[in-house]
Amino acid sequence: MLLTTINIFFMLTSSTPLADFTTDRDALLAFKKAITVDTSGALSKKWLTNTSICDWAGVSCGIKHQRVTGLDLSNFGLHGILSLHLGNLTFLQYLDASSNNFTGVLPAELSKLRRLKLVNATCNNFNGQIPRGILTNMTTLEYIDLRFNNLTGALPSNICNNTPKLKRLSLIMNQIYGKIPRSIHKCSNMEELSLSTNMFNGNIPTEVGNLTMLTLLSIYDNDLQDALLAFKKAITVDTNGVLSNNWLTNTSICDWVGVSCGIKHHRVTALNLSNFALYGSLSPHLGNLTFLLSLDVSSNYFTGVLPAELSKLRRLKQVNVTYNNFSGEIPRGILTNMSVLEYIDLRFNSLSGALPSDICNNTPKLKQLLLKMNQIYGKIPRNIHKCSKLEELRLSMNMFSGNIPTEVGNLSMLTTLSLCSNDLLGNYINP
Length: 431
Ligand SMILES: *[C@@H]1O[C@H](CO)[C@@H](O)[C@H](O)[C@H]1NC(C)=O
Ligand SMILES: *[C@@H]1O[C@H](CO)[C@@H](O)[C@H](O)[C@H]1NC(C)=O
Ligand SMILES: *[C@@H]1O[C@H](CO)[C@@H](O)[C@H](O)[C@H]1NC(C)=O
Ligand SMILES: *[C@@H]1O[C@H](CO)[C@@H](O)[C@H](O)[C@H]1NC(C)=O
Ligand SMILES: *[C@@H]1O[C@H](CO)[C@@H](O)[C@H](O)[C@H]1NC(C)=O
Ligand SMILES: *[C@@H]1O[C@H](CO)[C@@H](O)[C@H](O)[C@H]1NC(C)=O
Ligand SMILES: *[C@@H]1O[C@H](CO)[C@@H](O)[C@H](O)[C@H]1NC(C)=O
Ligand SMILES: *[C@@H]1O[C@H](CO)[C@@H](O)[C@H](O)[C@H]1NC(C)=O
Ligand SMILES: *[C@@H]1O[C@H](CO)[C@@H](O)[C@H](O)[C@H]1NC(C)=O
Ligand SMILES: *[C@@H]1O[C@H](CO)[C@@H](O)[C@H](O)[C@H]1NC(C)=O
Ligand SMILES: *[C@@H]1O[C@H](CO)[C@@H](O)[C@H](O)[C@H]1NC(C)=O
Ligand SMILES: *[C@@H]1O[C@H](CO)[C@@H](O)[C@H](O)[C@H]1NC(C)=O
Prior knowledge:
Elements: H1 2-13, H2 22-33, E1 35-38, H3 42-46, E2 59-61, E3 68-72, E4 78-81, E5 94-96, E6 101-103, E7 118-120, E8 127-129, H4 132-136, E9 143-145, E10 150-152, E11 168-170, E12 177-178, E13 192-194, E14 199-200, E15 216-218, H5 224-233, E16 235-238, H6 242-246, E17 259-261, E18 268-272, E19 278-280, E20 294-296, E21 301-302, E22 318-320, E23 327-329, H7 332-336, E24 343-345, E25 350-352, E26 368-370, E27 377-378, E28 392-394, E29 399-403, E30 416-418, E31 423-425
Parallel strand pairs: 3-5, 4-6, 5-7, 7-9, 8-10, 9-11, 11-13, 12-14, 13-15, 18-20, 19-21, 20-22, 22-24, 23-25, 24-26, 26-28, 27-29, 28-30, 29-31
Antiparallel strand pairs: 1-4, 2-3, 16-19, 17-18
Bound molecules: 2-acetamido-2-deoxy-beta-D-glucopyranose (12 copies).
One 2-acetamido-2-deoxy-beta-D-glucopyranose binds next to strand 10.
Pfam families: LRR_1, LRRNT_2
Signal peptide: 1-15
Protein name: Leucine-rich repeat-containing N-terminal plant-type domain-containing protein
């Protein structure tokens, strides 16, 4: 439908005479050559040199001039790179390569296409930077949809310099970092700006407020770099210079030392800074790393409290902060409401306070609760039996008092229980 509209539009506005279309043919053949897997056989069966390119699957041509105006290859099951020779399809208005398995970079040559209105490359595995020209110098471009790829780099500071028609820019689910450039306000026809789930940092520039046509702005889930920079800021001494030399804002956080990201979604899944000789406190901003599965800051010199914000992390399975000098109470949420938490190792710190009476209320997966060598006092709560998967419970060298609750006997998976050096009444024999 859109294609037809575009073609008719083209016929009405174009006065270009019939042209030799071997250029287009050569460009399409070069495109075909760069395809490594043609799952559905669309190209191998339907892009034959003895037929007109205008009859090839996914190819649309202008009715009069027979030049390629549209390429709709969505969902063709293609693997390979997007050939830079597409930049020779000078009449192209519509390029849809969505939902394939393209890899490599988006060719910068696309920005040579002075009639291009739509680029759809969503749901592929494109990587590298978005070619500068595409975002700064495409006078006819209206739609760019690059969602769900592996694109990285920063947006050019002069974005929108000469893209006056751009209505929709969708970059959701990539790894684009840096600031959202102020120059964005020059895209004065922008209706939809979707930047969520990337790694942008800083504030939304006030200039976004000048986009008067904007009806949709999505920027959530972008604060990963901010969260890690806040973490870095709370480090007072970085003995080996690991963070100061490696955690640089001009690189992707997924390349930062100690940071691991999910292969597909590129969110931070693990932070492991064990034994880095770090001094300082643990930033509450860690609570913004919503995809975090594992946190290991063991064997450092951290002080201060464990941030309660950790309990916001609904995917967190492993917490290891042993061998530091954390103090204060263990945030209640961590011991009562972490539905996937498997182990928590808080040994050898200066944690104090009592355990919450509703401990284990919603920590059904907890296997190891290691609190050895702290200053935790009060009774061992009866509710402990709700941690029915508990295998290892180490409470020795604290200041627990009172009776050992009989409910501990209900923990049928328990293989290690250590309680020595407390003021507990009664004997409990370590199995
Ligand atoms: C596309 O154009 C470039 C520059 O004009 C040229 O070097 C290249 O050979 C062309 N590609 C094809 C496949 O004709
Ligand atoms: C084009 O060539 C293929 C084989 O390469 C053949 O099967 C087909 O019949 C030919 N089509 C025309 C229209 O000549
Ligand atoms: C890409 O290929 C993988 C397997 O190689 C497949 O699971 C996935 O669905 C493909 N993606 C698309 C969009 O076709
Ligand atoms: C913008 O694109 C046009 C046409 O491709 C080119 O001539 C011009 O040099 C480009 N301008 C910039 C600033 O890149
Ligand atoms: C791009 O393609 C996807 C899937 O093929 C589709 O859902 C989306 O609407 C397209 N985007 C634009 C801007 O046309
Ligand atoms: C994403 O791109 C990076 C390089 O930029 C590469 O190391 C990584 O393997 C890519 N991820 C996927 C899923 O292809
Ligand atoms: C943005 O809008 C404000 C008023 O709403 C105006 O004062 C300002 O000059 C505009 N900025 C730009 C860059 O257009
Ligand atoms: C990043 O910035 C640092 C200095 O701040 C510089 O030394 C380094 O070369 C830059 N790296 C890249 C990839 O630009
Ligand atoms: C963290 O890194 C250390 C050293 O490389 C390793 O021994 C430890 O198992 C890692 N922690 C986690 C939770 O993977
Ligand atoms: C990130 O964490 C800080 C500290 O907990 C909080 O103030 C801020 O609102 C969080 N940001 C987002 C976007 O959740
Ligand atoms: C926590 O880290 C320490 C090393 O820093 C390691 O010895 C210990 O086994 C880890 N705890 C768990 C439960 O894996
Ligand atoms: C740990 O912190 C406590 C205060 O919270 C302090 O009294 C103690 O000396 C510290 N221990 C070490 C080994 O630094």
